[in-house]
Design a protein that fits this description.
304 residues; alpha/beta; Rossmann fold; 2 domains; 8-stranded mixed beta sheet; two-stranded antiparallel sheet; 9 helices; 12 strands; 31% helix
């Protein structure tokens, strides 16, 4: 890791010693909570969770120095802000981008991450040789399953995501997890037992990497991951994918698109709605004029 990443690692370790804990909410909830007075930060959770502006005395000098060394201390006329957040999941802390995540290369962490994590812990096998987390983001999925695998690969096209993932791997004290810049599985070598993925699934006009899934309704990347994963898994290997499915006229656009691949290459297919209605505010946008709802769904399938 470079100097900035080492500073983020030390910051995460310091927050853990201080018993910092924060559950990250949706951006809409975040904005509602931050609109309440008082606006300024008064605690570690305000600074590193709620991404609030803080004064020079709100943080111990050592933490502020680490933020500066990490290149994550933003100064303005209103005061300081952290460019990173730390979120709690299971027994881990994960560093990721601060709210709001407007930058095209931002690394997101939120309710989808928690749902994805719950799905993995409930469905992933108790042991396997190799797990690949496609579009790893913060690395949360692969890190959660690290105790069940001999080798874990965190893959992403976003270099900022890989930087944060490396910090989170070190923060978790893991030494058998590797990171690779890869478009889906193109740069991942070797036989794979389990592929996990929580890809972006929105149609995002700003083309943010963490959010834009491509295609007419954001479904394209999820479909591509299913097709390419079934071609790379060993026989009997599994794919666990969490994504969003736009519903049009009562039909599931994503499920219909992956149908041929599942019929020809997969067995033991389990597909279920995890949440029937997410990101309802998106339906006001022209791109979603034909969509009646977006569901969070989980796919668990085995390669023939």
């Amino acid at each position: 890791m470079d100097h900035a990443c080492r500073a983020l690692l030390e910051l995460g370790r310091a927050l853990r010693v201080l018993h910092y804990h924060f559950v990250t909410v949706t951006p809409a909830t975040h904005d509602r909570v931050n609109a309440r007075p008082p606006v300024g930060a008064r605690s570690l959770r305000d600074v590193f969770g709620w991404s609030r502006t803080f004064g020079p005395d709100a943080l111990p000098g050592s933490l502020r120095d680490l933020l500066g060394d990490a290149g994550a201390l933003i100064e303005s006329e209103e005061g300081y802000r952290s460019a990173v957040r730390f979120s709690s999941l299971a027994d881990h802390l994960f560093v990721h981008s601060a709210h709001p995540t407007l930058d095209p290369g931002a690394v997101f962490f939120g309710p989808d991450t928690y749902r994805f994590g719950s799905m993995l812990l409930a469905r992933a096998p108790s042991s396997c040789a190799c797990v690949v987390d496609v579009g790893c983001g913060s690395g949360a999925g692969g890190i959660l399953l690290a105790s069940r695998a001999g080798r874990v690969v965190l893959a992403d096209v976003n270099e900022q995501a890989l930087r944060f993932a490396r910090v989170n791997v070190a923060l978790a004290g893991l030494d058998h997890v590797e990171t690779v810049r890869s478009d889906v599985l193109s740069a991942v070598e070797g036989e794979i037992d389990l592929i996990i993925a929580n890809p972006p699934y929105m149609a995002d006009p700003q083309r943010r990497v963490y959010r834009d899934g491509g295609g007419a309704l954001g479904e394209a990347l999820s479909v591509r991951i299913v097709v390419e994963s079934l071609g790379r898994l060993r026989t009997g290997g599994r794919l666990l994918l969490y994504t969003g499915a736009p519903m049009v006229g009562g039909g599931d656009v994503f499920r219909q698109a992956i149908g041929p691949a599942l019929e020809s290459q997969a067995t033991n297919v389990e597909y279920a709605e995890i949440d029937p209605d997410v990101f309802g505010e998106e339906l006001e946008r022209p791109a979603y004029a034909s969509v009646e709802r977006i569901a969070a769904v989980g796919l668990d399938c085995t390669r023939r």
